[in-house]
Amino acid sequence: xxxxxxxxxxxxxxxxxxxxxxxxxxxxxxxxxxxxxxxxxxxxxxxxxxxxxxxxxxxxxxxxxxxxxxxxxxxxxxxxxxxxxxxxxxxxxxxxxxxxxxxxxxxxxxxxxxxxxxxxxxxxxxxxxxxxxxxxxxxxxxxxxxxxxxxxxxxxxxxxxxxxxxxxxx
Length: 170
Known about the structure:
globular, six-stranded mixed β-sheet, alpha+beta, 3 helices, two-stranded antiparallel ribbon, 42% strand, Nuclear Transport Factor 2, Chain: A
């Protein structure tokens, strides 16, 4: 009987242990600011010209995509300015969906886990096609009232792009 009571207590306690810490008005505002920033970031990321994408990052930010690492804002900006994803033609529309973001704010730092999905529309007459999907674990810091990305660890689980060379003329 004692074992049954212990198991029942553990079963009831487990969901509570997995829940995020409580939120207050400030935390809700911070979470909305982070989510809005990441939606904007993903919109900029899918444009053919990614001007000022580095502005979303801290000076010493790190991106790790399946083991491919970029260290620092300047390296991140250079990569996005010059990398070529051969799947995406200039006439195509490439969009990213950010879904299931779980954002936990602790003072001036935060962590987000999310799922992202990339899809490509070759023209207005054919259905878009899923191109890639993966998970993201990102950390953020608040500096001067603005949230910035400190690190992003992306695991591309399907459709990892082959980014080659640099754009012609660079």
